[in-house]
Amino acid sequence: MEKVRVHVIVEGRVQGVCFRHYTQEAAFRLGLKGWVKNRRDGAVEALFEGDKNKVDEIIQWCHRGPSAASVNNVHVTWERYAGDCDDFSVTY
Length: 92
Prior knowledge:
Elements: E1 3-13, H1 19-30, E2 33-38, E3 44-51, H2 52-64, E4 70-79, E5 88-90
Parallel strand pairs: 2-5
Antiparallel strand pairs: 1-3, 1-4, 2-3
């Protein structure tokens, strides 16, 4: 399976709705590595690494987010796979 890396910025009502927590749960379920954090501008930023089909799934999940979220936009930037993430963490 092809390994990929993607950088995602999710905009909308995505802070204060447990977006980071649910992103981490989804990433664990899909076997992805990386991180997720809140940004000062109100967006949520994440980096995902793993099998391409699983990364595609998490990107689709980011378009919805948890039930309390209201996602307006998702910016996706594909990057060269590095394999430098040991797990999936919530960063601050």
